[in-house]
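Same chain as my last thread, 79 residues:
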Amino acid sequence: METTEELQQLEITALKSIYDQYFFEPPPPKAWKVCRCRVSIGQVLIVPKTAARLQEFIIKVVHPDPLHASKVYFHLHTK
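reply #2:
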């Protein structure tokens, strides 16, 4: 049986093939999370960790009439 992560990846692959040139993956985040861990009394160790990244993508949905498609559209941003 496939895990939920594998099923989600299969769905994303299907969306990529359906929307082709209108499917975008945003760049990875540039922010860092900081973990403050107390080593001993009075000392704090600061360890940078990369931010956890959820599956994220953007699909550009255009107007069905090619005459208006370049001006009438929206971005469906999914996390």
